[in-house]
Write a structure and sequence with these properties.
The chain has 238 residues and is mostly beta strands. The chain is built from four helices and 13 strands.
């Protein structure tokens, strides 16, 4: 029997120092962004969204790393969905600093990317790790900052931290209204236990006036994941 051909990834990178600020969210905010054929994935009876900032490092598309496009921050708002046993994430909006990256993501996969001025600042101290991400949008600077213990630990499989950080699938909607699926492969991530967190975000400015109801809300929890190398594999369109 001929062995199956090895999978070829569309994208490889290292996703590092991921800040995930996690909020229960009303269904009516995320349901308009839900792709066909998937349903909201709930925890404690609620739908959830996460503000996420992280480092996109050593990026390669189809094995090629383009100078000037290998290391950059990403900031996104995601929520959680499932297709049968496939647990994954969907995106409301994603920010990167390069117009080319944002444009290609919209053109090829109809992903809700936007280009904006951004910063990433990650500092390793002897007793702490600090990650801070900013995006300039709508005439102001929005910021996420988390501080975690220096030693990384592996959370339990039934923990909230595990639930928010471990997803193998991404779901989107094609221009024809069909489902787009892609698989994200990486080893299980360790976390830095969060000791301090701050967010300066105007939800309505970033994501539309309907999201202004989230302004002033504190997250139910924050995860600072160490991250790892990742590979992304397209899995077809419906």
């Amino acid at each position: 029997m001929t062995p199956p051909a090895p999978r070829r990834s569309f994208l490889t990178a290292r996703w590092c120092h991921l800040v995930l600020a996690n909020y229960p969210v009303p269904d009516d905010l995320v349901r308009p962004h839900l792709p066909p054929g998937v349903e909201l994935d709930r925890r404690d009876g609620s739908a959830w969204c996460s503000l996420v900032g992280f480092q996109f490092l050593d990026t390669r598309v189809l094995g090629v790393g383009w100078p000037g496009y290998r290391h950059f921050p990403e900031w996104n708002l995601r929520f959680y969905a499932r297709r049968g046993a496939e647990r994954g994430v969907c995106f409301v909006r994603e920010f990167v600093p390069q117009r080319l990256v944002a444009g290609l993501a919209r053109l090829i996969y109809n992903e809700p990317y936007r280009a904006a001025r951004m910063t990433m600042d990650v500092r390793d101290a002897p007793d702490a790790v600090t990650a801070r991400y900013t995006v300039n949008w709508g005439g102001r600077t929005h910021a996420l900052r988390a501080v975690g213990a220096r030693a990384a630990v592996r959370p339990a499989a039934d923990s909230a931290e595990h639930w928010f950080k471990e997803h193998s699938w991404g779901f989107g909607t094609s221009r024809r209204g069909g489902l787009i699926r892609y698989e994200v492969s990486h080893p299980e991530w360790d976390i830095h236990l969060v000791t301090d967190f701050a967010a300066d975000v105007d939800w309505g400015v970033l994501y539309g006036p309907e999201w202004a109801v989230m302004n002033g809300r504190a997250p139910a929890g924050v995860v600072l994941a160490a991250g790892s190398a990742v590979s992304v594999y397209p899995r077809g369109r419906a």
